[in-house]
Amino acid sequence: MSTPDIRAVCASALAPVLDGKGSLNALDSTLESAGIEGRDRGLAKALCFGVCRTLPRLEALSGVLLRQSFKRRDQDIQALLLLGLYQLSYMRVPAHAAVGETAGAARALGKGWATRVLNGCLRRFQRDSQTLQAQVDRDPSIALLHPEWMLTRWREAWPDDWRGLAEANNQPGPMTLRVNRRHEDRETYLARLRDAGLAADPTPYAPDGVTLHEACDVRALPGFSEGTVSVQDEAAQLTAPLLEPALATTPGARVLDACSAPGGKTAHLLEAFDLKLTALDSDAERLGRVDATLTRLGLEATTVTADATRLGWWDERAFDTVLLDAPCSGTGVIRRHPDIKRLRRPRDIRELAALQVRLLDTLWTTLAPGGTLLYATCSVMPEENADQIAAFLARTPDARADELDVDWGRPAGAGRQLLPRIDGHDGFFYARLRKQPA
Length: 438
Known about the structure:
Layout: H1 6-18, H2 27-33, H3 38-53, H4 55-65, H5 75-90, H6 95-108, H7 114-136, H8 140-143, H9 148-157, H10 162-169, E1 176-179, H11 186-195, E2 200-202, E3 209-212, E4 229-231, H12 239-247, E5 253-257, H13 264-272, E6 275-281, H14 284-297, E7 302-305, E8 319-325, H15 340-343, H16 346-364, E9 367-377, H17 386-395, E10 399-401, E11 410-412, E12 415-418, E13 428-435
Parallel strand pairs: 5-6, 5-8, 6-7, 8-9
Antiparallel strand pairs: 1-3, 1-4, 2-3, 9-13, 10-13, 11-12, 12-13
Helix pairs in contact: 1-3, 1-5, 3-5, 4-5, 4-7, 5-6, 5-7, 6-7, 9-10
């Protein structure tokens, strides 16, 4: 069996992203299907994510280097050029390999004609890299590696923080774990990590969180297969502490996790409290990941595939608590999903905000009087966050917002906004709403 060409596989995976018709979500399965394993898989993922993270600069450089753009059917060749530029600019790959093996990968794609073009462009970049990078970086959006429209929105929303927000997005997020308190406490698990030679620190805000100094394969984590620990960013772990006032004193509370996949928050709530939880999601395949997570952790919930903007699935028994981790732009987690820089469009924010309106209004009817709805997004866009909740409160007479007495984030209307931090948490928004008794 022949050895797969890593760069050709990466180019094929990146081509749909460049065309705006795909994402990196299926990258693991793509690499598995291609037979790329072990260290080669780590290299392939570093290449694909790195290209997406630095895409604005790489595309600007390719525009300078090419006499004319590749045709649309040759997005895989464009991807090879970007892969070569990324290796030469950001990786320790020997230059001869970055040029020769990247150009040669065109043959594996059945497009040997492109080898000479790629070789010429990459060799020119080797000679003139400093001059060419300085040339394209005159554009601030290229220097900050984000679309101009996105930076404009952030300058308006976060005039003192927009540049730091972009810079945090350009760094890979740390690997953060959630310790299952049903198994052991955080200090005990930190000691187990030290014994395993893994350096880590407790997260400053999430009581069950641990951040590793260096990422590792989950199979190297003590107790992972037994359900002692899960991978989850610190910001996402704040859901359980925020719902503690509603759930800690109500054993057997009926809880709805309305957009539950892939199941991290679902599992955390079940680890922390005694609940009867319904995990709802419109995507059956993604809901399967919730089931897999619960099985690994030894937890139980009722899983339902349904559209949360409609009530055909509901038995009209009110829930004590509703968690709405709403579909959003993902602009707070770009560092973990850098293809968002290419795939997200300004119109998406309007469309997502309209979906959030429907979700809030529909799910509010399922909440019992006196109950709590926690609204969350991994967005930094006010239209999806503070503005969304302000509009909901204005049109919903029986809704009140709780003041969040916490030491993280910053006030954002009726909620709290976290911006991504280098070596820290992702960007997130939370608002806790209470339904007034009739």
